Amino acid sequence: MSIEKAGWQGIVAEVPDDWSLTAVSGEDKIGYFRLDSTKTQVLEVKWSKITGKANLQSKLTAYLEDLKKKSRKRKIEFEYKIRAKDESLINFSWKSNRKASGKIWICENCSRVIIAQLSGALNEDVAGDASIILPTIVDHSDDNWRIWGVYGLQTEVPPGYVLEKHQLMSGYIKLAFRKGYDRIIIERWGLANTVLRNLTLKEWYEERSVYEFKPYKYKIENILFEEGKGLQVTGRKASLKGYLQTAFEFLSFKKPSYKLDAYVWHCEESNKIFSIQTIHSKVENVINEVLERTVCHK
């Protein structure tokens, strides 16, 4: 079984590729995600931004006492142990009708307090598995690009881009990011052989993008990727509305975001279709860097 990176808002863990992202909430400042194995194990990660110095011991005790309170309401015994390493990292474990091993730490780079725990059945070696999985958790990259891992899609976006909207389904993923007027949209479709039945990649993409690209004068060209057949889209705003928006951005001292670029490709090895689209100014385009950091198969 292969390993993949999975996570949310730049916090990712390395888990077996059959684990699924089953819950996400919040944003950069405060959030949560959950990864479920095909059996009983669950990895949960939650975070919150801090200002000043945080008391990890106090935050962890409050978290564990809350779990204990919820267990008592269900008339389930709950016990926990806290093992402090230093002021910036504390390990813990708990046991009820399940058991868990976890840790809480402060990331000085992204100013977040992060709690991560792996839980499982009483008869599982949760501590042993946690000792493998928890150390793989990364809460920021060296160059501050934000890492995302969802249903096998692994990608990164530059600093300053904020998640604006998302759709997460096994057959379709969409992550839309915004930085001022600039946008990055990353999409993935599953079962490409079914999606492309009786259609070429270009025919399919033109059909699904005709409304989305209406404000643009654009062209779509066939190109080749290492992963298989692909498309390159280039364009610029062509409508009166588009030019008025560009003029408004110029008068607002913003770099006008009037150019469209996109790459689309069919990864035959994973049987999926991927798309990376940017709406950007003439002097600021990150599509090639995002493409290099996007993984479609192992």
- Radius of gyration from the CA trace? 22 Å
**Poorly predicted runs:** 246-253
Mean pLDDT: 89
Estimate percent helicity: 10-25%
Q: Assign an overall shape.
A: elongated
Question: Span between N and C termini?
Answer: 12 Å
Structural class: alpha+beta
Order of helices and strands: EEEEEHEEEEHEEEEEHHEEHEEH
- Main sheet specs: 7 strands, antiparallel
The number of helical segments is 6
The portion of residues forming beta strands comes to: over 45%
The strand order across the widest sheet is: 3-4-5-9-8-7-6
Tally of DSSP β-strands: 18
Notes on the structure:
The protein has six helices and 18 strands. Strand 4 (30-36) and strand 5 (42-49) form a beta hairpin. It is α+β, with helices and mostly antiparallel strands. The strands form four sheets. A seven-stranded antiparallel β-sheet has the order 3-4-5-9-8-7-6. Mean pLDDT is 89; it is low at 246-253. The radius of gyration is 22 Å and the shape is elongated. The protein has helices spanning 56-73, 126-133, 192-195, 201-209, 240-251, 287-292, and strands at 3-8, 11-16, 20-26, 30-36, 42-49, 79-86, 89-95, 99-107, 112-120, 146-150, 153-157, 162-168, 172-179, 182-189, 216-225, 228-237, 259-267, 272-280. The longest helix has 18 residues, at 56-73.
Give a short summary of the structure:
The protein is of the alpha+beta class. Helix content is 19%, strand content 46%.
